What does this fold into?
Amino acid sequence: MSSIEREQLLGYLLGALDDDEQRHIATRLRREPELLRSLESVQRTLRPLEALPRSYEPPAGLAARTCRTVLAKRGRTERLPQLSPVSSTAHWTQGFRFADLAVGVAIFLAAAALIVPALQNSRFHAQVFTCQNKLRQIGVALTQYSERHGGYFPVVPPRGKLATAGIYAPVLMEHGLLTESSQVVCPGSPLAEDRHYRVPRLSEVERVGGDQVGELCSQMGGSYGYSLGHIQDGVYYGTKNLRRQHFALMADRPSLHMPDFQTVNHSARGQNVLFEDGHVQFLATPSIPGPSSHIFTNDAGRIAPGLHVDDPVIVSSTAYPLLSPEE
It folds into this structure.
């Protein structure tokens, strides 16, 4: 079990995930016996905590001694108020002192400083994990499409209204290989906040004109970017499924305003990348092994089709058409 998966299961047990992520894990637990066994393992790890006492009666005078120690360290013992010991049998409203409040607040803040970052980190890993699962599902759909279309993934038209990298999503949906718009929304992306998002149909884009074309095209690909294909001897080719291990086919959507075109998904800490052989990997930078290392630009450093068949270039659905009308 990976550390990301373990933290996601821990977040599930603690109720630290959002509703969609909780439901996603619950569905996987029903379908995947191995994941259920992993959950039981995490539960066993936490079981010793159940033996801890639910309440604890502090020793008499603990607050006064704590404050005295703290103030002594700061050289201010002369300002220490005289605190009488608090009887463990007294009602809390009778024995309560400001020092008790100060100690309680300090303990609470110390606990919050430890727990809140842990929960935030768990949530981050849960979103990364859910995003990876979505990319794997899209990868399966793309592979099925390629098997029905001569080995090619959905081809981005070089010009016209549909000349956008986001075309992969409506094409897969119209072929019944994806069924819901939410499948192309990363839970760690700004788009996840839009509960009304949907993938537009190709026929919708073809009917509209003017600014509406750009607006619909920008929505097509959801939270993800898609491979442009390459140009060889002046001819544009789509991406063919050669099941390459290091060929980036899709990734979290690149952002033009970020350094190195890093995605804003996942708090700009990195991007999930779907490779042509179907595996998904989280990368802190938009670079992969091999000569064509940058996944958001071609070998010439441009946001344009690859310069050869092994030059992957992933762009968002806001990218301009591949070729100008003159070409």
Q: What stands out?
A: The chain has a mean pLDDT of 81. The first helix runs from residue 3 to 14. Residues 130-315 form one domain. Residues 141 and 176 are 9 Å apart (CA to CA).
